[in-house]
Amino acid sequence: MGNSALKAHLETAQKTGVFQLTGKGLTEFPEDLQKLTSNLRTIDLSNNKIELLPPLIGKFSFLKSLILNNNKLTALPEELCKLKKLETLHLNGNHLRQLPAAFGQLSALKTLSLSGNQLRTVPTQLCGLRHLDVVDLSKNQIQNVPDTVGELQAIELNLNQNQISQISVQISHCPRLKVLRLEENCLELSMLPQSILSDSQISLLAVEGNLFEIKKLRELEGYDKYMERFTATKKKFA
After folding, report:
1. How far apart are CA 192 and CA 196, in angstroms?
2. Which of 45, 66, 97, 179 is the most exposed, having the fewest neighbouring CB atoms within 10 Å of its CB?
């Protein structure tokens, strides 16, 4: 892509606060963007070949939305964690194995999508995020859900298509968790904490495609309580 094309994009971004350049085969984050650190509210560089996010990402202090789906990122810089206004972060289809240690400092974050990466566990850093609504960790390599998950503030947690065979009973203590997606994992029925049914806020539990028949779920203690929440929620949205 020529400089003139990039220049046109930059001029538009300066007016709109949105810089979108997708599917252009970019191998690096456009350095010229640093001229717009105080303008930009949204950066979308999806469907490129970016391998590294430079430290200068931390300078976009007004950024609300960062979308880098389908790139080649293997790690994220600590500087990303300085983005105090960031509400939406989409990193689907990269090669991430972990999140920066300071990730919990992204205090405004509401939506986090990390589908199709190489995470092996639910990152503990997520538990510090008080405004998190939706977390998508589907299509990773997560094998178990640790005790720290009980502090997660999210309303929806998507763990579909992982390799989960163990879930901490603490998940039923999540204060705001309403939707838990666990489809296509490696769960035995005995490994599903019954407290999710009997003693949690969860009103939608999706567990198709595991190592048990769905009808067996109905025989578990607490299923009636779960169905009460499920039905009440359905009525609310009907």
Report:
1. 8
2. 97
